[in-house]
Amino acid sequence: MSEPRTSVSAMLETAVTALGGATRDGQVQMAEEVGRALADDQHLLVQAGTGTGKSLAYLVPSLLHDKRVVVATATLALQHQLVERDVPRLMEAMKGQEGVDTSYAVLKGRSNYACLHRVREGVPDDQGALVQLPEGSMGQKVLELRAWAEEEAEQGGSGERDNAPRHTEREWRQVSVGHRDCLGAQRCPFGQECFAELAREKAHRSHLVITNHSLLAIDAIEGVPMIPEYDAVVIDEAHELVARVTQAATDELTAPDVERAARRARKYVSTEGASNPADDLADAGEALRDAVTTASPGRFDVLPEHLGDALQLVRDAARACVSGFPKEKPGEGDGDPGRQQAKGSVQDVFAVAERMAADLESDVLWLSEGSERSAPRLCVAPLQVWGQMRDKLLTDKTVVMTSATLMLGGDFASVATSVGLKPSERVVDGGSVPEGEGVLPWRGVDVGSPFDYGRQGILYVARHLPPPGRDGLVKAQLDEIAELVDAADGRTLGLFSSRRAAEAAAEAVRERLPHLTTLAQGDAQLPELAKQFVEDHHTVLFGTLSLWQGLDVPGDTCQLVLIDRIPFPRPDDPLMSARQKAADKAGGNGFMQVAATHAALLMAQGAGRLIRTTTDRGVVAVLDPRLATARYGSFLKASLPPMWTTTDPAVVRQALTRLAASAG
Fold first, then answer.
1. pTM for this entry
2. Mean pLDDT of 320-335
3. Which of 514, 559, 539, 560 has the alpha carbon at shortest distance from 663?
4. From 113, 166, 379, 539, which residue has the greatest number of CB atoms within 10 Å?
């Protein structure tokens, strides 16, 4: 086994001391394990509980590695923490250390940067004409964004969306482009100033590149070069990886998408014979609209013939339309953004229609219902991503995956399998390294947590309640919620399986406990709700999935986390149901491999909202008796922090009352 050039633990101690802190046992162990993985070119899954200090534990060995390392995060919040706090402070502390390259860069998708061509020239409309400004208040916001982008260009700023004045998604699209609409640095008159190109150039000069799961997936798995050549990748928030890779490989198509592409193309494609290829594409869009109207929403186990015919019609018409764009001679392109956008739109339609029409066993195709504001959408996603991840990422790079929740059911097997690593390939300390063609050895390590969950937290399972049904919360559950919230005197984060359940619980608590402030997701933007929740301890905040993963509220603010039911995927979830069916067909247990694993991960994330520091105390209350009574309950409980467990409601109410009294 080779050794890192410099002692990882010694460098970690130097860094932590320079930052005014002290190393922790789990942090030191993790840093040494990451250093070992990078040195030995061996994959690593490392579970590190909240409070371990895992960012420094992987950044320090990454700096000591002799080749470029990519760090990929799932959420903007963690990326922001790394870029604005952890990495700059670490680089300052490490500056001058022999053999340490402290260069780093942040890399995001092109649409995350302002486009100077769009800012200065305007946005092409559906016919390709440049529109300088939209009407009304949106125009004023676009002016503000343009002024900001010009200031960024003058001052050498990054032009990143995160640094822009407050805006909506629609407003940002007026000053940005995706990769299809980009003219390219060589053809764009502002290519030398381009924020996205400058970010890529900086990444090419840097030892450490910080990006996100989606860009990593596009680069490594989709094969679209987005990131400079690198040797290893550290994937933080790795419990999100499969979902993000799936999302990056999911395509959608609507009839309006096809018709819009046809309108954009009409003025650019050449007409030979009786019909314009853009008109044929518009006709194909109309055929798709008719086919979608007669199809039933949901997953298609077999592609309906009329829908397959419409998709083939769109595919063939889009191919002909792309061919109808005049070919540009090398060096003579005029950089017409309207034509670039039009051709890109048609190419997108062709690629998605071709994929859907192929009706591959490796894809899942379904129809989502439309609404008053949106048309029904055809969606296609990969049935699984572990094969692509194994072949296109794990085979070529050294990969370190870390999260507070990687051991589901008390083991790494579920997560390892989902990302393309086989349990039989795991290297156990003291054991031999598996050998053979195509074998990818990996290690799984749990470095623990600085928290004493057995003393700091109680897991309460309301065994006496009726199992949850399809009709939402019943009186017994609402009574239980009110009693627990009353005992906690507020200080409650309620995590619900649906917006309807969260709103029903909020309404009941407002009615029964009017002296408390009860907030429901949707009452305001999440940052505003979180601010109010933190500032007033006698506040209750009820919401859905985004609260499970997007809220960090240490201290007395949150002493009770309520989970209304085990968060199994909906039976009609097209992708999850297809994956479950495929697992059963392959001889496995689809329920445990897909539904129970999904629920275990979400429950672990939800329960993790409670204990955020070594002084936090509180209760995780699960109002679903199946956690105590069902055979799969032990698997789910083994995925949660090891808290003291009870099913006695009186014991829990007394504990919450004592906590509330001590908090004041």
1. 0.90
2. 73
3. 559
4. 113
